[in-house]
Amino acid sequence: MSASRTHRWKAVALATAAVLAGLTTPALTATPAAATTTSYDSTYYKNAVGKSGTALKSSLHTIISNQTKLSYSALWNALKNTDQDPDNSNNVILLYSGVSRSKSLSGGSVGDWNREHVWAKSHGDFGTSTGPGTDLHHIRPADVQVNSIRGNKDFDNGGSSFTNSGGSLTDSDSFEPRDEVKGDVARMILYMAVRYEGGDGWPDLEPNDWVSNGSDPYMGRLSVLKQWNDEDPPDAFEEHRNQVVYDSYQHNRNPFIDHPEWVDAIW
Question: Which UniProt keywords are given for this protein, alphabetically ordered (predicted)?
Answer without folding.
Answer: Endonuclease, Hydrolase, Nuclease, Signal
